[in-house]
Amino acid sequence: MVGSAVVRRLQGEDILNDERIDLRDQLSVREWVQQNKPDVIVLAAAKVGGIKANSDAPAEFLYDNLMIETNVIHAAYEAGVEKLLFLGSSCIYPREAVQPITEDALLTSPLEPTNEAYAIAKIAGLKLCEAYRQQHGCDFISTMPCNLYGPGDRFDFESSHVIPALMMKAHEAKVKNAKTLEVWGSGKPLREFLYVDDLAEALVFLLQHYSDEKPVNVGSGEEVSIAKLAGMIAGVVGFEGALVFDSAKPDGTMRKVMDSSRINKAGWKPSVGLEEGLGRAYEWYLSNQQRACAA
Ligand code: GDP
To answer: For residues 166 and 244, is the Cβ–Cβ distance under 8 A?
Structure first.
């Protein structure tokens, strides 16, 4: 999803977007980077998933992400890549971090257990960028986006993040004339969502204007409860039945809003509001249903 948005944003530039390489394979990554010698790498590739996927497959989330980061970052160093931008996630911050979460909250207390494996891997990636900068002078930077959504997302009932999962459920409920829509957890957790093309704009902005070891938060600043989000999704999809909350499912962290004032002060602001973004994501889903479910 993020990679495609970056490619959309950089249309017309000389982009290498080779989807054939298994980034977990050290040799393939090293050979590819040596042969293609990119000036800049945007490391958006990762094993990602929603709250259930993270709990079901912690080994995969840890192994795949550690391998991808280690291989790409080291190969970039060896090949003398001028700039590398690593994407982390807001879940790297402690579960009990003071909200809105600033970049300084990193490693100050324990993580949220439902996505600890993913967070540990992403923290390692950020630390790799920091270490290669310190030891080798590489211009490697990292950014922490909030929860993302939009075209190219993975739509799956079980393993998706909340927006694609609820969109798909609401769509199916509407088509089948179902009376209810099941929402996991209490509906009370608060989340911050950013439309993926806004993120792509922020990434290009950082590539052009940022060079420091400290990660940069990128969020929309728009916080919404899961219950309200579910209502908005039902509205966008046109599902008119009732929302049913399944308290047997986990809530995860109760609040996760980032302080994005550093990038805001530097000059980047999001442009797509949640209501509009949900509409666009649903349109994309409707015209790409097969692709969305296979992503
Ligand atoms: P998180 O931000 O890492 O917790 O990732 P998710 O996007 O998977 O979940 C966000 C919140 O939405 C959690 O509180 C979930 O319990 C809640 N949620 C409600 N319904 C769903 C659903 O159908 N799928 C997912 N993934 N989350 C849901």
So the answer is: no
**Which one of 55, 147, 156, 184 would you pick to mutate in the ligand 1 pocket, going by the greatest count of ligand atoms within 8 A of its CB?**
184
Alpha-carbon distance 57 to 118, whole Å? 10
Output the six-digit token pair for 5: 């948005």
> What spacing in Å lies between the alpha carbon of 161 and ligand 1's midpoint?
6
CB contact at 8 A, 198 and 146 = no
Q: Which residue ranges have their beta carbon within 6 Å of ligand 1?
A: 50-51, 91, 115, 147, 160-162, 165-166, 183-185, 189, 191, 226, 249-252
Where in the sequence numbering do the catalytic residues fall?
A: 118
How far apart are the C-alpha atoms of 213 and 244, rounded to whole Å?
A: 45
Rounded to a whole number, what is the largest CA-CA distance in the chain?
60
165-186, pLDDT tens digit by residue?
999 999 999 999 999 999 999 9
125 contacts 69 by C-beta, under 8 angstroms: yes
| Distance (Å, whole) CA 26 – CA 72 | 8
pLDDT tens-place string over residues 85-108: 999 999 999 999 999 999 999 999
